Amino acid sequence: MRTFVYTAQDSAGKVIRSTVEADNPRAVMEALRNEGFYVVRIVERRRPFNPFILFERLFRIGLKELTIFSRQFALLLNAGLTLAEAIDTIEEQTQNNSFRVILHKVKLDIQEGETLNQAMKKHPRAFSTFFVSMVQAGEIGGALDNILERVAVFYENELALKSKVKSAMVYPTVVLTFATGITLFMMMYIVPQFAAFYEELSAGQAALPELTRRVLHASQWLVANWYWLLIIPVAVMVFLRFRNSKWGHILLDPLVLRIPIFGPLARKVAITRYTRTFGTLSQSGVPILEALEVAKNTASNNVVQRAIIYVRERIREGESIHAPMKRTGVFPPIVTNLIAVGEESGNLEEILFKLSDYYDQEIDATIRGLASIIEPIMILLIGAVVGTIVISLYLPIFNLVNVVR
Which residue of 87, 170, 203, 358 is most buried, as measured by CB atoms within 10 A? Predict the structure, then answer.
């Protein structure tokens, strides 16, 4: 709801200034006229400027917020509220300012006669193609509340999957950052303190060991050219931006699948997203070709996406689902064989959900194995780097006895 400040006169000519909440100025004017007031002025009260709104609008609405929205929306519809009333209720308690604005626009479009999926389609930052397709199927089938419950379950599973993937990446990233910080601190602060002493030592009969000279030269270069370190975060940001671009997926996704450990993990994540999305859409009554088109966008890997496009084209020409999937060579035999069984028995959706659950368990096992491998590797890496620096600094001291003799 929007807040309006109005100035009006009653039948006696008394001027009244007050505020009222309404969807638009026309509703305020009609309500005041029905009460016998003459409207002089209506102005919308602007919300105080919030710099966080600009920050929020740079990103998509989060899965957690969409999950809560779906469950609340389903509950309110099941309780007998209209679409506009349900969205208005959710809008009032939504904490995200950007999402609140989107919900208000969706409500106004519904009040003007548009369907819910048409109103949501205008806001791709909040409602994905998957969400819109599910809502459209729910409106056509007359079971929108049940469909929204399925959407909430889907997003909960997606949140759990993202949490698993992040847990696999956070630990090595934190440890690598910590190791880099320690190394830079030693090279730019500790090593230079030894440099003056070693210069006097090397001026005499004692020559510095080769390892010590290399470490000292590297330290001197870092101290003199520290500004080059600023390139590292810039390069990381540029790489991540390119990685998330269309060409980044085209060029790098095939390489990702070939990386030991991480490649199989990426393939499992793409397959579980594809099977869960495909199963959810099919179960909700979305046509197969449209379901495959939406599922393609959730696969998160260009190689898998191109395979799904190939499968979709072959199905359009009259083939089954499992045969073209098998020809792509992207999907493991267990996937294609179980989908073939599902097509023959008529319970494809159940098979897709079982495959999704199976690969969720596989992802858990892979991440646990990854953690057990990465931890000793990181410890050895940190030990090797720090140990090399420490040994290089103390080698001349070990040789000092020979110099004194």
Answer: 87
